Amino acid sequence: MATRNYDGKKIKGESATDIVDALTVEEALEIDINNKPFTVSMRTPGDDSFLVRGMLHSEGIIKNIDFLPNITPKKINGEGIVTVVELTIPENELGEGYANSRSLMSVSSCGICGKTELSDISVEGEALDDDSKIDGSLIGKLFNKMEVHQHDFKQSGGTHAAAAFNLDGDLLCIKEDIGRHNAVDKVVGELIISKKLEQAAILTVSGRISYEIIIKCFKANIPFLAAVSAPSSLAVDYAKELGLTLFAFCRSDRATCYSNPQRVKTTNISQDIGNKVS
User: Distances in Å between the alpha carbon of 188 and those of 75, 165, 173, 267, 271?
Assistant: First the structure.
């Protein structure tokens, strides 16, 4: 259930008209691990198994990418929406992220909310040393492909989308959610469960880019990330540090590359991107 109908009045000047609008559903999902509450995510119901698996990967909760725990619905509300899921994860499969887990709230709009310490936003691992190159003219085509599949957005105008592609621009999967980082988690989760993560080379997202989406992309080992809107300063800093090629303001045939432009095949792109501009 991605949308729900609500009555409203559309006001234009001094007149008002009764309308019925489809609005994006936002519901809480509690994730319990080994019979203990772990976190609560505000998400759009649907693809919950992908959301949970992707989140546990990006947060470093499960250290073995090939380990696929059973995700069992524990509570379902009167509308048939799952509100609590239970996972059993052996101690030897739990990563360091479990001990340093966030507190019990992960909202749909901001992935940093709920972190228990400022140091929790740090990330470990070697920078991506991928020598793949992408044709700059491909970026706009990827967003066109993603837009075709944004069915929930066409209904409500209230969802974000994320999509994964291989280096040739073939669509691997696309997910929608009220939260940008939830959509990314759903994509990564499906790629893990379907054993397609190694094929993923490009991640596209609607909206802006925050630092956390950079980290999710890095942990999924995806070297190219492209967004419709602006990146934050921290997102660009992390992209440079972690070896991601970051595109933003991707509109039609235009895009701005903020990091690691050596991977972009164009005739005149400058390679002098790497220092902060004050």
Answer: 25, 12, 9, 33, 30
Q: What is the pLDDT of residues 136-166, one digit of tens each?
A: 889 999 999 999 999 988 888 889 999 999 9
* Residue range 234-270, pLDDT digits in tens: 899 999 999 999 999 998 888 999 999 999 987 665 5
Enumerate domains of the chain plus CATH numbers: 27-121 (no CATH), 134-265 (3.40.140.10)
The Cβ of residue 1 has, within 10 Å, a number of other Cβ atoms equal to 11
For the entire predicted model, the pTM comes to 0.85
- Active-site annotation holder among 110, 113, 217, 257: 110
Q: Which residues contact 166 (CB under 8 A, 6 or more apart)?
A: 172, 199, 200, 201, 202
Active site residue 110: yes
